[in-house]
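Backbone shape codes
____________________
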Amino acid sequence: MTRPIDRPLRIAVVTAGIGREATPEVRRLTLETAAHLEALGHHVEEVDPPVPDWFADAFLLYWSMLAMYLVRTGPRARGTSWDSTKLDNLTLGLARHCRRNIAKLPGAIAAMGASQQASKRHFAAYDVTLTPTLATETPTVGHLDPTRPYEEVIDRLMDWVAFTPLQNATGDPAVSLPLATTAAGLPQGMQLCGGWGQEALLLQLALQLEEARPWPRMGA
């Protein structure tokens, strides 16, 4: 992709995470990025998330199913090389979560499928969605230590990734760009999301943003 976008886009701005809120600083940085997009000639509108808050619970249960599958099939798949003592608290806790909520799993799987239709409806009205990549500022080392108690780690993790699960579920394209800097001087990623098959559009918009306000290079 060698040319930036050369037409105005309809850009939805989502600053409320799915089931979790972005921190005030991350919301402010997202709105500043939205203002920059508007200055480039795009139509920008703040909207609610395209899926309801309960989607986060369905996503967590679907994710936990994968952990349970790993725990249960590991010995058969890996044979004598399998060492269950090396499984961390996050993986084991996710597997327990699935076992305890197994009756709700069909509904969670259905919610993953329904999210694709919700995304299609959203992108019928907008070309691109802007969200923060992560809902909090960069955490300290150890904040997401998987050896900590499961309840502590999963709560912190779901706080952090309140914006990316939808693309994980739908398969829609998204790109994270270093468009903002926190008060602590750390980069804060901003996520641009597109509808199914719109990878080229996102790359063109990313190139326009990079040309308008180049971000620092490693080692520069």
Observations:
- The first helix runs from residue 24 to 39.
- The CA atoms of residues 18 and 53 lie 5 Å apart.
- The helical segments are 24-39, 55-78, 89-100, 105-125, 150-160, 165-170, 199-212.
